[in-house]
Amino acid sequence: MKIEFAVSAEALLTIGGATVLSVIIAMWVKHYLANWRWTPLVVLGITEAFTMTAQFIVSAGVLAWGGVYAAVLMGLFGASLAVFGYETVVNALGLAGVGPRSVASQVEKAKALLAKEG
User: HEC string of the chain?
Assistant: First the structure.
């Protein structure tokens, strides 16, 4: 079984490439960012930077407005699919009673917070 994973500037300028990159960025950001509320914006910003850089590389250093527009949209769509796809999966699992957003888990977190606060 041979699995190929294209790592190129052209691959990043596709929905799939931008989404895979955003998922990887999100995993790192969630691990190291102290305030989780900023995660979607940080992921979007980093993804946009990567897609703009990829567009610059693909266009041999000459950025036309159409290429800039395409790169911005790829970054936006990729980050949106990664961040909100994750949220959808975690929320669905929570509704099913599994994971950190399940009712049981949230009750335990609330009890721990109340015990800590006194």
Answer: CCCCCCCCHHHHCCHHHHHHHHHHHHHHHHHHCCCHHHHHHHHHHHHHHHHHHHHHHHCCCCCCHHHHHHHHHHHHHHHHHHHHHHHHHHHHHHHCCCCCCCHHHHHHHHHHHHHHHC
* Contact residues for 6 (Cβ-Cβ < 8 A; gap 6+): 17
Q: Which positions ≥6 away from 70 have C-beta within 8 Å?
A: 13, 55
pTM attached to this predicted model? 0.81
- 76-105 pLDDT, tens digit per residue, is 999 999 999 999 999 999 999 999 999 999
The separation between the first and the last C-alpha atoms of the chain, rounded to the nearest angstrom, is 57
Among 12, 84, 79, CA closest to 52 = 12
Does 3 have pLDDT greater than 80? Answer: no
